[in-house]
Amino acid sequence: MKSFSLSRRSFLKVTAGATAASPFLLTPSGVANNPIPPPSERVTLGHIGVGGRGSEVQKGFQSLPAVQCVAACDPFQSRVIDRCEAINRFYAEQHSSANYQGCAGYRDFRDLLAREDIDGVVVATPDHWHVPIAIEAVKAGKDVYVEKPLGVSFEQDCALRDVVKRYGAVFQYGTQQRSGRNFRFACELVRNGLIGKLHTIHVWCVSGDQGGSMQPVPVPEGFDYDLWLGPAPYAPYTTDRCTPQGGYWNYDTSLGYIAGWGVHPLDIAQWGKGADQTGPVEFEGTGDIPTDGLYSTITSWETTFRYGDGVEVRYVSANRVRPLIEGYRGPHDHGTTFIGDKGWVSVDRSHLLADPPSLLETALGEDAILLYESENHCQNFIDSIRSRQETVSPIESAVRVDTISQLLNISIRLGRKIHWDPGAEKIIGDPDAERMLSRPMRCPWTL
Q: What is the CATH number that goes with domain 180-367+395-435?
């Protein structure tokens, strides 16, 4: 694999004792007997954010023969210890060695990024950290796999796109549905005109929730709360703030499920529409925003946005779903339905349906529009690191789909329609809305 010079920070020397920067560093003491394969044979990965979702993604990479997971990072000490132990057990079985200790643990992501021997990083932190960490990773010479959503502001999305392009980094977005056969085939049916002229798209996803304790309590031992907050506004620690729900549904750290969950079916809408390099021009909608408790993102919504060619998208939370097509409500809690003047096709993680049903028997020829084929999202990232080719979910499509939820969030919160120029990437005629495209970051964190 490629080699890189160190970034601003010097290489973190792994010693038997803890360091001031990483007080619960787990040292790879057994590497001498079970050396990590050389870079020419395996892609080495560091995992930043190893909670519930982060650990699941890490397992996906760990299962790939061409990958070596060598580092785990999280401000929760217990998570790092658990994940490193699990990784070491996995490789110990592969190496037939009970002493294998090839994964190092870190509290601070900057120490992980200082390692020259890491080719790529997987960012699966709370939402507000996705872009700042990914930017630092790219500047440190790493390729990046970033879980969704992208940023908590449009400004963040653009900053990451600029850095990825400037440094020539490989980027994979965590919109895993693009690596699913049914989703790809549904989009190919639409792109090849087999449902006729596309005029409407329906998108739905899981709604959010309200509540969450506002009562300050002591920070648990072994948890770096200040680092967890990072660029988010300072707020006292509560029992719910740093849970998955608190991270997903607090506006300080997230846009909520309108972005974090909705990006999956919205991404398929963009892919099927052929809009990876552009986006809609009008956004409007209504939504519920809690006024009590910790959770403050939009909990449910009913929105509409339109493309310049007249195609209209109705995007709603699952609790507001009405029958989209007679006889079909959508069997899964999130999905995408494309409607044309000659038929429709609908896809979610459980079903692929169409009218006429014969559409699903279509054999697309060599002269048809065939979309990027990936059968495994993690493997696609690794293959792209080796080939230096674009992934199935590259940075431009990530920014474009993330922009949709950013603008819908602004529209709902301001209570009015937003007009957007997707070429210039500017809000038209609304200075107040324009200001909401960026967010302040807590000192000393910057983009």
A: 3.30.360.10
